[in-house]
Every structure is written in structure tokens, then in C-alpha cells.
């Protein structure tokens, strides 16, 4: 029985540069190929990281018989078409967040993955950070009673540049898909899918969202208050409030090392759980182990959660007058 998974990198951009370095921490997970729309770019990435094969198109990488798993790190609207092609060839997938540019696109990818029986997971590394794993354990054990609300913020100050991917509508730019996905996914992890979504914010001249404040409401009175922005920096902190205490997730909450448990009538308890490597190793290991075990999805980042998060993001964007489309497959 194989103990190795052979990986291909789709889109050798900034995030891929960081993620690929953490493969050394996952025994048996090997990056064997990279694909880009530019052969030169693919070759340069391969040379930097000691990868044997460089493809000059995504299609060639998808068709590579010596690749089992694809890490999909292109801009959001390009995920949909590449994912469907990959699933059709029997490839397993780790898909960067946001999973797709639209709910309809995400639903199509999820349906195809389930029908094909391949492992597909959104690359929400936050859920696999050891400090967040410990937070979930504490919550499940009742350390703070019943969770009633969540607060989270994540924002950076970026000068508006219409040529930059972050501000380009056709590339799925804006705060929500790039940063808001973290705060929404964190709330969804602890509270589930909301009954109502209320958003306020602003947009850039290119038509993408610049900042957003979200109130997620639940029929039983629970709530999440979330902030995301490309206009101004935010602390990147999260808090989980329960009936018997709360937990602070220290900045930056989407890849924390430390949480602080506050129980009623007790001194605060600081708990540090550092990540292995840069922190991406844990999600890589989840996919690697899932593929070898023949699973179709992760119990920690299930596809139903990805769909729930996408629905919140799309609803919030719509309230700001923003709508995205999936990119067509490359010729």
C-alpha cells in the first residue's frame, strides 16, 4: 500500500512559494510538478524548489499521470474550471481559499468531487493550526460553556492599484474573498451557518469590495460580528464568548500560536501551541492522510462548511453591490 502522494502546484505565485516549503515537514508528500500559463515561470519555480517537472499550461499539469494531488493556487475565479478538469482525471485537490468566485461554482465542484470519489478540500489552514485545534477541544469540553458569539477582524492597508490582483474584479479581488473568508470561516467553525447576513462597507473604483462589516445572526440569538478590510490594517484578533467565559485568539488569529482562556472566577490561562514549519504543513498532512486512507473529504474542513462560507461571502458581497463570475477554462 502506497505511503506517498505526488503533488503538482497549479499557479506558482506568492502563496505557492510559501506553501511548497512546508512539504518537507510531511513525510511521503512530494511535490513532483508545477504548472503555469508561462513555461518560463513554471521552470523558474521548479528550479527554486527542486521540482522535477515544469508544465507551460494548467491543462498539461492536470493531465500529468505522475501527479496524484493538485494544490490549486491561482486567483479565485480560475479555481472552478481547473478543479473540474482535475476531478475528471481523478486528481485529488487542495484548493486555496476562497474556494471559488461564486456559490454556483463551488456547488458544481463539490458535486463533481463527490460523484468522482476524489478527496477535495479548501486550504483553510486556520482550522489545522495547533492553537485552533486546542481551542476547539476546549470548547467541545465545555470550558467556556455554550458559545454565544464570535468576534473576528482581519485587514491590511493596501494602496489602491487597479492593476493589482487584489483590486481586479475579473480576478476576484476585494477584501471579502481574500481576507473576509478567514473571519467568516472562523465564525462558521464555531457557530455553524447563520440564518441572516447583514453587511455594510465600501467599494473601490474597480467594483470590488474595499471593506466590510458583517453581522451574522442566528435564530436562537447567537451572533458573529466580523470585520475585513483592504483600506486599513486591523489587529487580526478573534474572541469566542461563552456562557461561562471566553477565549482570546491572539493576533493574527488565522494562524495563531497562542490563545488565552478566561473562565469565570479563574485567572486567565495562556496556552501556546506553535505550528510546524510555516503552518501550512498541517493542511498538507490532512490531504495526504485523507488521500492515502481513501477518504473523499476532511472532517475538519468538510465541503459542507466550504459551501456555507461561500454563501455568506456571496450574500455579503451582493449587499455591497459586488458580484463575481468564474473564469472560463484555458484554451
Automatic annotation (TrEMBL):
UniProtKB keywords: Oxidoreductase
Gene3D superfamilies registered for this protein in UniProt: Dihydrodipicolinate Reductase, domain 2 (3.30.360.10), NAD(P)-binding Rossmann-like Domain (3.40.50.720)
Heme as UniProt keyword: no
Residue ranges of every copy of the GFO/IDH/MocA-like oxidoreductase domain listed in the record: 133-247
Organism domain of life: Bacteria
Occurrences of domain Gfo/Idh/MocA-like oxidoreductase N-terminal (ranges): 6-122
Single GO MF descriptor: nucleotide binding
Family: Belongs to the Gfo/Idh/MocA family.
Protein name according to UniProt: Predicted dehydrogenase
Classification of source organism: Bacteria, Bacillati, Actinomycetota, Actinomycetes, Geodermatophilales
Amino acid at each position: 500500500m502506497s505511503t506517498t502522494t505526488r503533488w503538482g502546484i497549479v499557479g506558482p505565485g506568492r502563496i505557492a512559494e510559501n506553501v511548497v516549503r512546508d512539504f518537507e515537514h510531511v513525510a511521503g508528500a512530494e511535490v513532483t510538478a508545477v504548472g503555469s500559463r508561462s513555461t518560463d515561470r513554471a521552470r523558474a519555480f521548479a528550479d527554486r524548489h527542486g521540482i522535477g517537472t515544469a508544465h507551460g499550461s494548467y491543462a498539461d499539469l492536470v493531465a500529468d499521470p505522475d501527479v496524484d494531488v493538485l494544490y490549486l493556487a491561482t486567483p479565485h475565479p480560475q479555481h472552478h474550471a481547473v478543479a473540474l478538469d482535475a476531478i475528471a482525471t481523478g486528481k485529488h485537490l487542495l484548493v486555496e481559499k476562497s474556494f471559488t468566485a461564486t456559490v454556483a461554482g463551488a456547488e458544481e465542484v463539490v458535486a463533481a468531487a463527490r460523484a468522482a470519489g476524489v478527496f477535495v478540500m479548501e486550504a483553510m489552514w486556520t482550522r489545522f493550526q495547533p492553537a485552533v485545534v486546542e481551542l476547539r477541544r476546549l470548547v467541545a469540553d465545555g470550558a467556556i460553556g455554550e458559545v454565544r458569539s464570535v468576534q473576528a477582524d482581519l485587514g491590511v492597508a493596501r494602496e489602491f492599484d487597479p492593476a493589482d490582483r487584489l483590486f481586479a474584479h475579473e480576478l476576484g479581488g476585494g477584501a471579502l474573498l481574500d481576507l473576509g473568508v478567514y473571519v467568516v470561516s472562523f465564525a462558521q467553525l464555531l457557530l455553524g451557518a447563520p440564518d441572516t447576513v447583514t453587511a455594510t462597507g465600501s467599494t473601490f473604483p474597480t467594483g470590488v469590495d474595499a471593506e466590510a462589516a458583517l453581522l451574522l445572526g442566528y435564530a436562537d440569538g447567537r451572533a458573529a460580528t466580523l470585520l475585513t478590510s483592504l483600506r486599513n490594517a486591523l489587529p487580526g484578533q478573534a474572541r469566542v464568548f461563552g456562557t461561562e467565559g471566553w477565549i482570546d485568539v491572539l493576533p493574527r488569529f488565522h494562524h495563531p500560536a497562542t490563545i488565552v482562556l478566561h473562565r469565570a472566577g479563574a485567572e486567565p490561562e495562556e496556552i501556546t501551541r506553535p505550528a510546524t514549519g510555516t503552518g501550512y504543513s498541517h493542511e498538507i498532512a490532512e490531504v495526504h492522510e485523507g488521500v492515502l486512507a481513501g477518504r473523499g473529504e476532511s472532517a475538519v474542513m468538510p465541503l459542507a462548511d466550504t459551501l456555507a462560507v461561500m454563501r455568506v461571502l456571496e450574500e455579503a458581497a451582493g449587499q455591497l453591490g459586488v458580484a463575481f463570475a468564474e473564469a472560463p477554462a484555458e484554451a
